[in-house]
Amino acid sequence: MKEQNVLNKIRIVLSHTSHPGNIGAAARAMKTMGLERLYLVNPKSFPDPTADARAAGAVDVLQNAQICTTLDEALAGTVLAVAVTARRRDLSHELLPARQAASRMLELSTQGEVALLFGTEMSGLCNAELDRCQLLATIPANPEFSSLNLGSAVQLLAYELRMASLGEIEVPVAKTFEVASFEDVERFYQHLEQTIVATDFLDPANPGRLMQRVRRLFARARMEKEEVSILRGILTSVDKFIKK
User: Fold this and answer.
1) 45, 107, 125, 219: which could join 119 in a potential S-S bond, CB 3.0 to 4.6 Å?
2) Domain residues of the chain, as ranges?
3) Any bridge partners for residue 11, and if so which?
4) pTM (global) more than 0.90
5) Is 182-243 assigned to CATH 1.10.8.590?
6) DSSP tally for the chain: helices H, then strands E
């Protein structure tokens, strides 16, 4: 695939950005590396002249940005969502350095659209947002001072994506199976939760972290569309048995 076609499959998602200047800086970082698709989840202030000023020639990226009210809306239609995090999490998904994560993203972009998710400036991404992703990416910064502002973080990941698209980083040949979409996987999780509540395996009044663990288990599996259909079929058979 040509570079532009590859990068057009990548969407940058900024969740709950508090300062409009950081949105502008992210847009500038994206455009310098050939990325144009920006999604904003509940930004505190946007559109905003401060964002335009910081974009410095990338105002078109801001003008074409998709404003979403939920993260699910921003991830709709994707086959892979990668969360950028500065710290290791317990119960975490697979965690890759930025370069390897970029390679994985381009590999899966042959199957459909891929999202790269950044959290709010102060606290990053919450666990609920991480649960919507299948992979974590981290920037191997100085462990004694690993804090990066949002624009810089976007710039570094965008650079790695561009280098991968230019062939400077080896991108594995994608498998031929059809990857399950974000919507397919979310419907499976909803169906699974309903079924295990009906069988009393899960107490909705005291759910603990069961569904969080389940989500991360299946995230590591990178389910195919057909595999999700099989699992949904098994759940449907259980539902029918319960009704009898």
Assistant:
1) 125
2) 3-165, 182-243
3) 37, 115
4) no
5) yes
6) 11, 7
What confidence tens digit (pLDDT) does each residue in 2-26 have? 455 789 999 999 999 999 999 999 9
Q: Rounded to the nearest 5 degrees, what angle is found at the Cα of 140, between the Cα atoms of 106 and 128?
A: 70
Contact status, residue 50 vs residue 201, Cβ threshold 8 Å = no
- Rounding to the nearest 10 degrees, give the CA dihedral for residues 175, 181, 184, 190: 110
Per-residue pLDDT tens for 65-80?
A: 999 999 999 999 999 9
Beta-bridge mates of residue 41: 15, 68
With a cut of 50, say whether residue 197 has pLDDT above it: yes
Alpha helices in the chain (DSSP H): 3-7, 20-32, 49-55, 59-63, 71-75, 98-109, 127-130, 150-165, 182-198, 210-221, 225-243
Q: Which of 94, 103, 102 is nearest to 217 (CA)?
A: 94
Question: Residues 165, 167, 169, 170: is their CA dihedral positive or negative?
Answer: positive
In this prediction, residue 220 carries a pLDDT of 84
What is 3-165's CATH number?
A: 3.40.1280.10
